[in-house]
Amino acid sequence: xxxxxxxxxxxxxxxxxxxxxxxxxxxxxxxxxxxxxxxxxxxxxxxxxxxxxxxxxxxxxxxxxxxxxxxxxxxxxxxxxxxxxxxxxxxxxxxxxxxxxxxxxxxxxxxxxxxxxxxxxxxxxxxxxxxxxxxxxxxxxxxxxxxxxxxxxxxxxxxxxxxxxxxxxxxxxxxxxxxxxxxxxxxxxxxxxxxxxxxxxxxxxxxxxxxxxxxxxxxxxxxxxxxxxxxxxxxxxxxxxxxxxxxxxxxxxxxxxxxxxxxxxxxxxxxxxxxxxxxxxxxxxxxxxxxxxxxxxxxxxxxxxxxxxxxxxxxxxxxxxxxxxxxxxxxxxxxxxxxxxxxxxxxxxxxxxxxxxxxxxxxxxxxxxxxxxxxxxxxxxxxxxxxxxxxxxxxxxxxxxxxxxxxxxxxxxxxxxxxxxxxxxxxxxxxxxxx
Length: 435
Fold this sequence. Notes:
- The structure is a single chain.
- The protein has 2 domains: 11-374, TIM Barrel; 385-431, no CATH class.
- The chain is built from 16 helices and 14 strands.
- The protein has helices spanning 37-41, 47-52, 73-91, 100-103, 110-131, 158-178, 200-220, 245-254, 267-272, 277-286, 313-325, 348-374, 376-384, 391-397, 403-412, 423-431, and strands at residues 11-12, 22-23, 31-32, 35-36, 43-46, 95-99, 134-139, 182-185, 191-192, 226-229, 239-240, 261-266, 290-294, 334-336.
- By secondary structure, the protein is of the alpha/beta class.
């Protein structure tokens, strides 16, 4: 069945094109800094917002028009696989991501859920083999089911911890079956409502315990994807343990997980934590932990996770600068963890939204590449810290000074010259790169 009969494969037509179903900036074969755009960007489409989100919100019912619903939940799940891969092929996206509950109904028992997953992943593998499309990452949804009301790995119920472990095991089995490059943990309920009845250390110890079980099992089955943790400060929990990149890195390092885990960072989660996305990417990069990203944006006027498709060229340019500084994002990728707005309910809007996101990242890549080639920011930073390249600064960096010697130096050189940052000029020039 052709689920999108009015849409052909999306092609690059350039900025003069008036065709809404064409790329204006994303040319997958265009070479930028020695690699093609598709190699740099590694675009992935998420299953949840794309195939299961219905357009409902706390104040309104479902509005999305979708052609894949069948007579039963499993009929719908089978249809979604066909529709999803048709969308991926027409977009030219080479990767995808999913939660276990996205692809298969939970049924009436854990056993039935796993059987449903087996059947649907058989279909997914068949489509992967036919198309060459690859699994960027999968994960277990351990936050939606009522059993996870008080957490999954951080739960106070040992039986719930066991169920979470079973879902992770199944997720890793599926990752091996589908050749997944990464495996993600997002702790939506791994936090607390109040500290009055919470043993924080106990809960974090148990989260680390489950992560170590996952690493051990992956080694046992001979399939070890890159493990990723996705930070978020709140919502749905009042406070989530993986608050931001720095907090999550501290957790990884405390429990000795740094050789196995990196971060999957999301733009909207960064703003909820009170950071720019650029900040979160930098924190991960300088600690060797930038693994993959979820590409979206929030609304600065709204205090929740709106998951809009990324269209802010300035922010995406700085995102791509960090990825280039990281030496690329592989084996991670750029996953559109984004959903169409409630007013954009036609099935065609799924294509228009992804085209907008892919074009924006193509522009961000070219802008960041020009910044890198010109060396504007590198020269600026080098000049700003130049005092540490000679004299007393170089001596400090060589660990040749101590408090006594520096005190003696300071008493003789207390008229230190402090230079202006000229930051308004810097931002003005940076705007010239936003094409």
